[in-house]
């Protein structure tokens, strides 16, 4: 079981690194979109600071969705998915492996880039620590939920657009509590409740999403 | 490759199998049984359900009716165990262009048998005469070489039941002979093979399953008739 | 009667609400009805065209064709062949 | 014995129910409208706008009811592979979306006189908006595949994932709403509903349910006819 998990994480990371890493594209999108906001809402520090948490979370959410539709697409087209769905290793574990690899190539870079961009948006330094912590707990949940969407749109017409319609409504709880955690930190209010709830989402997603993704993959392969 | 017989091989059978793809009944009321050492050759025109039957046997496709059993026990109860004791070779070769042959085969054999070592991979490739391709990335392989790398997975992670969907496409005469030899050796060790093909593959003593015998008129009238016959 | 339509000054909000609900439900019903009628008409045409061979013939023939495995393989093939 | 996709038994049942459902819809709708618009008192605080509630609240109930029904049907379809429940999910989704849209539109018309703006990020309306997106996602996914079976199965999994997320989204939106929204003066469903208002509310609710049954059965008959047309034309292709 664990061997299967390790094998697939290693394989997917190797694939990601050799195929021109998505991480660069994801982080570039994240930086670019955040940089657009001052042009939109004006450079006044006060406004930017007030919306900084929201901007960072929304753009991170969109960025992590970018590379989702390729999560299973190549395996679906070259027949690897057939072998995976029927293999002795439980499909849920393999999906968890692929999601971990996806998080390492997208969630982690976003996490590292977030504080830098927080400076651009003039966020109060008190919020940086919680921002990174909230990203650490929130972005894996985004990858887990996104994997369900990616499996559902396999072989669909215009899968990319459809994926965002399916997945974005499910991202709202993470967005709400992620932003409120950072806002609370900036105003020196307790953040424990929000982080615990984000943790709750993570464990719920880690338990349910691989199973739902496996079900979606099995019916996609039929 | 390793010479010990398959102790977990048992009679693999299917009763009253039916398969629906889209609104079309591909086949209905199909029975088969396969004892250790035996082979089944699936023949029939395109679209008669050869691939669908193989995917049903591989557990990839849920049959609309009927059930598969392994040594008497229903397969559906423990699909992962069925995955462990059978290998499925489909139309696609599942080879990543960016990974080398060693990584491609090694990944699957470590997933299936926990042993993804280079030695195992090398032995499997040698059986197909492509040991020299060990560190060649997938994108440089020809169709025939990709097919041989795909087939070498059968040897890298041995399992009693082989489900081969037109394994000899894109293979030259010499390699087909190699495949026939390996199948014979596999059966000699108590393994079982189900193989669909358009070209002639020598499978001595194999049971022939004509898919045409199990097609059913497709429209709803036929559907109702098929149902009365089955209920 | 006039004050009924006036709705205590809120006519501009009550009537449009009911209006929207009525329009949405009516449109949905009309689309559903039209979808149903076109599909069932096409089905009737197809079944009529398909039924040129006397229906009795297929009914008589159906059990044999549907359960070929009981009889010798050779015999049902032509029955099924004729059917297609 | 597992039944193939044999719709004929279902068709007989549907054709038997349809006239009754259609009749009930008309009667209940007329009675509901009469009680909503004429025979019920105006609210001392909201005046006549309370009459909008008699459409808004039943529509909101239907929006949730239909999504839950779809999720149950999807579970049945995935576990027992029962084709009729797939058809139900495909037929019910647009009706649920229509009711959600009605709930949103009437909510806006209700909010305008009270809060002065057409759209208010009130917890209930926001959750309704997200539910509307879940419906759109379900319908889009259902029709995004060439093979209808793929559409059915993918949408079934989505409906199950969605129904698990609805309470979580509701919880998050309520928290978000209390965080940013000063306690709104008038709650959406007004002060405690006094009995005179219950009759129109219930009549309209049942009228909507009868309408739902009628339209879903009609849509399912349409789907079955489409499936038969596909089956026959496919059989001519494959022979």
Task: Please provide a written account of the structure.
Chain A: InterPro entries: Cyt_c_biogenesis_CcmB, Cyt_c_CcmB_bac. The complex is a heterotetramer of chains A (222), B (231), C (84) and D (239). Chain A contains 9 helices and no strands. Chain A has 222 residues and is mostly helical. Chain A has one domain. Chain B has a single domain (12-229), classed as Rossmann fold (3-Layer(aba) Sandwich), CATH 3.40.50. Helix content of chain B is 34%, strand content 23%. Chain B has 7 helices and 9 strands. Chain C has 4 helices and no strands. The longest helix of chain C is centred in the middle third of the chain and has 40 residues, at 11-50. In chain C, 18% of the residues are buried. Chains in contact: A-B, A-D, B-C, B-D, C-D. At the C-D interface, helix 2 of C face helix 1, helix 2, helix 3 and helix 6 of D.
Low-confidence stretches of chain A: none
* Biggest β-sheet: strands ordered side by side in the sheet of chain B: 6-7-8-3-9
The percent range for strand residues of chain A is: under 5%
Structural classification of chain A: mainly alpha
Please tell me the overall pLDDT of chain A: 92
Helical run tally of chain B? 7
| CATH class term of chain B | Alpha Beta
Query: Which fold name fills CATH's third level, the topology of chain B?
Result: Rossmann fold
What is the molecular shape of chain B?
Answer: globular
**Secondary structural class of chain B:** alpha/beta
CATH superfamily of chain B: P-loop containing nucleotide triphosphate hydrolases
How many domains in all of chain A? 1
What sort of overall outline of chain A do the alpha carbons produce when their principal axes are compared?
elongated
Mean pLDDT of chain B: 85
Helix content of chain A: over 70%
What level of helicity do the residues of chain B show? 25-40%
What sequence of helices (H) and strands (E) makes up the elements of chain A?
HHHHHHHHH
For the biggest sheet of chain A, the summary is: none
Detail the poorly predicted runs of chain B: 225-231
Keywords (chain D): Cell inner membrane, Cell membrane, Cytochrome c-type biogenesis, Membrane, Transmembrane, Transmembrane helix, Transport
Membrane topology (chain D): Multi-pass membrane protein
Domain Cytochrome c assembly protein (chain D): 11-180
Protein name (chain D): Heme exporter protein C
């Amino acid at each position: 079981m664990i061997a299967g998990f390790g094998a697939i994480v290693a394989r997917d990371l190797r694939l990601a690194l050799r195929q021109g890493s998505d991480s660069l594209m994801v982080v570039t999108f994240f930086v670019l979109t955040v940089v657009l906001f001052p042009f939109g809402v004006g450079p006044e520090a006060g406004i930017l600071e007030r919306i900084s948490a929201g901007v960072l979370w929304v753009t991170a959410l969109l960025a992590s969705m970018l590379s989702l539709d390729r999560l299973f697409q190549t395996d679906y087209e070259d027949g690897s998915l057939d072998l995976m769905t029927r293999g002795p290793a439980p499909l849920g574990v393999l999906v968890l492996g692929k999601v971990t690899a996806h998080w390492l190539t997208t969630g982690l870079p976003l996490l590292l880039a977030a504080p830098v961009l927080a400076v651009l948006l003039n966020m109060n330094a008190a919020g940086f620590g919680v921002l990174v912590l909230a990203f650490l707990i929130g972005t894996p949940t985004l990858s887990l939920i996104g994997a369900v969407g990616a499996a559902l749109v396999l072989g669909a017409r215009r899968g990319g657009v459809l994926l965002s319609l399916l997945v974005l409504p499910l991202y709202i709880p993470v967005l709400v509590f992620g932003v409120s955690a950072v806002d609370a930190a900036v105003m020196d209010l307790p953040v424990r409740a929000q982080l615990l709830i984000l943790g709750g989402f993570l464990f719920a997603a880690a338990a349910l999403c691989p199973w739902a993704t496996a079900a979606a993959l099995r019916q996609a392969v039929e | 490759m390793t010479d010990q017989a398959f102790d977990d091989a048992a009679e693999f059978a299917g009763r009253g199998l039916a398969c629906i793809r889209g609104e079309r009944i591909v086949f209905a009321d199909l029975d088969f049984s396969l004892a250790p050492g035996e082979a089944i050759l699936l023949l029939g025109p395109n679209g008669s359900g050869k691939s669908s039957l193989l995917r049903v046997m591989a557990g990839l496709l849920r049959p609309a009716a009927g059930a598969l059993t392994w040594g008497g026990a229903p397969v559906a109860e423990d699909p992962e165990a069925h995955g462990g004791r059978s290998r499925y070779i489909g139309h696609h070769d599942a080879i990543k262009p960016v990974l080398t042959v060693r990584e491609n085969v090694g990944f699957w054999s470590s997933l299936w048998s926990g042993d993804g070592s280079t030695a195992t991979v090398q032995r499997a490739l040698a059986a197909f005469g492509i040991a020299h391709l060990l560190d060649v990335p997938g994108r440089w392989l020809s169709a025939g070489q990709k097919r041989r790398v795909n087939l070498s997975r059968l040897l890298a992670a041995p399992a009693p039941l082989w489900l081969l969907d037109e394994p000899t496409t894109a293979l030259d005469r010499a390699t087909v002979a190699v495949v026939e030899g390996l199948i014979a050796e596999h059966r000699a060790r108590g393994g079982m093979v189900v193989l669909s093909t358009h070209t002639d593959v020598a499978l001595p003593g194999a049971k022939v399953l004509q898919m045409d015998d199990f097609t059913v008129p497709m429209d709803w009238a036929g559907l109702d008739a098929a149902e009365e016959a089955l209920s | 009667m006039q004050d009924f339509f006036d709705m205590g000054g809120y006519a501009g909000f009550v009537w449009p609400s009911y209006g929207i609900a009525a329009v949405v439900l009516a449109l949905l019903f009309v689309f559903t009805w039209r979808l149903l009628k076109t599909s069932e008409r096409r089905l009737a045409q197809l079944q009529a065209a398909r039924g040129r061979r006397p229906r009795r013939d297929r009914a008589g023939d159906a059990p044999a064709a549907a359960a070929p495995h009981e009889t010798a393989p050779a015999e049902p093939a032509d029955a099924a062949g004729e059917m297609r | 014995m597992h039944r193939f996709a044999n719709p004929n038994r279902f068709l007989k049942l549907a054709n038997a129910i349809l006239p009754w459902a259609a009749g009930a819809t008309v009667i209940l709708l007329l009675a509901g409208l009469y009680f909503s618009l004429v025979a019920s008192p105006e609210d001392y605080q909201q005046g006549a706008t309370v009459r909008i509630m008699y459409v808004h609240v039943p529509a909101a109930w239907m929006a949730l009811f239909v999504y839950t029904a779809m999720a149950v049907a999807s579970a049945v379809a995935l576990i027992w592979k029962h084709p009729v429940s797939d058809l139900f999910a495909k037929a019910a989704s647009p009706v649920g979306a229509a009711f959600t849209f009605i709930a949103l539109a009437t909510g806006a018309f209700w909010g305008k006189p009270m809060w002065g703006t057409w759209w208010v990020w009130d917890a209930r309306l926001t959750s309704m908006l997200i539910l509307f997106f879940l419906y759109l996602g379900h319908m889009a996914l259902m029709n995004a595949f060439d093979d209808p079976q793929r559409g059915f199965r993918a949408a079934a999994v989505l409906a199950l994932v969605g129904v698990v997320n609805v309470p979580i989204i509701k919880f998050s939106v309520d928290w978000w709403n209390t965080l940013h929204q000063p306690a709104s003066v008038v709650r959406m469903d007004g002060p405690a509903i006094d009995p005179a208002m219950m009759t129109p509310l219930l009549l309209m609710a049942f009228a909507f349910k009868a309408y739902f049954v009628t339209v879903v059965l009609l849509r399912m008959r349409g789907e079955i006819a489409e499936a038969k047309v596909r089956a026959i034309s496919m059989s001519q292709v494959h022979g």
